[in-house]
Design brief:
about 110 residues; alpha+beta; three-stranded antiparallel β-sheet; 3 helices; about 50% helix
Length: about 110
């Protein structure tokens, strides 16, 4: 295929096969779990829907591995994987303390 002088062909990513997706989830899960336990969050570049879906699958696996709720948040450039809320507070008196600790954790 020829291109006009001075132009480059558009970069096209090859989609992951089903096997590659499964291997990616299996191989990334222990790493994400380790970083999540150590730091409370894991952030990675995920600028395509395919990468977002891959790391959402990783987040599900990590949740099962750690037996804790895990949440993932994507913004089109990155995906952030963090611990989700475990349970609702038993009383309203505990709610402000829980909310305050959530804000402190997110500002770190």
């Amino acid at each position: 295929m020829t291109h006009p002088l001075g132009t480059q062909p558009a970069y096209r990513r090859t989609p992951l096969s089903a096997e590659e997706k499964a291997r990616g989830e299996a191989n990334f899960s222990p790493l994400v779990a380790q970083v999540l336990v150590a730091n409370g969050r894991f952030r990675v570049s995920a600028d395509t829907l395919e990468m977002v879906e891959l790391f959402q699958g990783v987040a599900r696996r990590v949740s099962e591995m750690l037996e804790r709720p895990v949440a993932s948040y994507a913004n089109g450039r990155h995906i952030l994987i963090t611990f989700g809320q475990e349970e609702a507070p038993v009383s309203l008196a505990e709610a402000p303390a829980q909310h305050r600790s959530d804000r402190q954790a997110s500002s770190r």
